[in-house]
Every structure is written in C-alpha cells, then in structure tokens.
Please model this.
Amino acid sequence: MENTHDSNWFKNWFDSPYYHILYSNRNIKEAELFIDNLVDYLKPKADSQFLDLACGKGRHSIYLNSKKFNVTGIDLSPHSIDHAKQFENDSLHFYVHDMRTPCKENHFDYVVNLFTSFGYFDDEADNYATIDSVCKVLQPNGFFVLDFFNMEKIIPSIIPHEKKTIQGIEFTIEKKIEDDYIVKNISFSDEGKKYHFQECVKIITLPMFEKYFSVNKLKIVDLRGSYNMDTFNHETSDRLILIAQKQE
Model:
C-alpha cells in the first residue's frame, strides 16, 4: 500500500505559525515539572553540557539553562530558532540544524529529545542516522534521554475526529493508523484561505528502540513512564521515556 502522507510534513508544519497556535495551550508547568524531575533523576554537574535535540522555540532549553547548565538547542525550523535566539546568553545557544547529522562530536554530557520529537521520517535509515548522530555528539558515558509516546496505550485511545477552536480558528483534526504511522490531518481556514497540514509519527515500540540504540553503542539503563518519572508499565504508562548511556 502506498503512503498518502507527506514525507516532509515536519518541515512545513513546524515552521508554520499555525502549529504554535494549535498547541498554544500546552502546559508549560508540566514541561517544567518534567525537567525538574529529570534533573533530579540525572543529577548532572553544574557545568554539564546539554543538547536539546529538536528544541522548537526553546522552552526546555531555556528552563534547563536557568538551572545553570550549558545548553545548545537545535531544530530544523528557522522560525522557531529565530524566536529562541532572543534568549541566548554565554551558556545558551540555538542553531538551525538537522538532527540526522552530528554537531560538536564528543562534546555533550547529556542529549535530550523531549515530547515526542522522534519518528518523523519515512526512511528507517534516518531513524538510525539520528541515533548515530546522538551517539557521536555524546562524550563517553554520556546520557541520552528520549521521551516518546507509549504506543501500546496510545493507539487504542486514538480519537478519529475532533474539532478545536483556538484564537478564533476552528481546527478539524482527523487521526488514523496508516501503515506503521499515526497520521494526523489538520484542516482549517483563516482570513478566507484554507489550510491543510499533517503530522506523521512512526509507531515505534520498545523492541524497535532497543535495536536503534544497540547498533549505536547506546545501552538502555532505565525506562520511565511519566513526567513524574514513574516506573514504565507497558499497559498503563502514557510515556515511554528511555534513559541510555553511551558505551566506551
């Protein structure tokens, strides 16, 4: 069966102002709570180097930096990085960069990829390339934290059709399983013009992540299932949070 989704959807959607409107109600306090809990769990040294992979407008990077860590945020969206750059300082920097290619090899103590910012690519080789680039930028024994949907719980609870009105725009959202992806079609009109965007996230389960990681010398050392860092449960956890360490 041929895919009907757009393989480059993320380039258009994440760089659109409407993406930020649709998700403007995302809970900042929840995001900060997750960072608080994650830092408490990892216990990084004060001068640790963090890479925020697919950082968006930088909310996690900025909050991490407020905790006295050195933070680099990278994202493919020029508009998001332009926004984030206003918050730069001597220990916080943002760059437009594709996460499939390494930056600053053997430089970072921690790499984080948060709020389901993985699984966007059609080609499996791109997923492997992303994890390979993570491994290359980490220092030996550095840690990688990847926060993803727990697909085993999410898939049965998918809402096929819903409408949301945000900032005067009515978004029609339709979700379906297509091949090995959750495909979200987003349609709306604004100022007399019709728009359509997609989100496509690959259905990736724990055994698949284990394969991505193992070929790139990353050892999964722990699994967590929520932003409170609860122990992961296949059936009940909302999140699949993988903590992996680079092997020497």
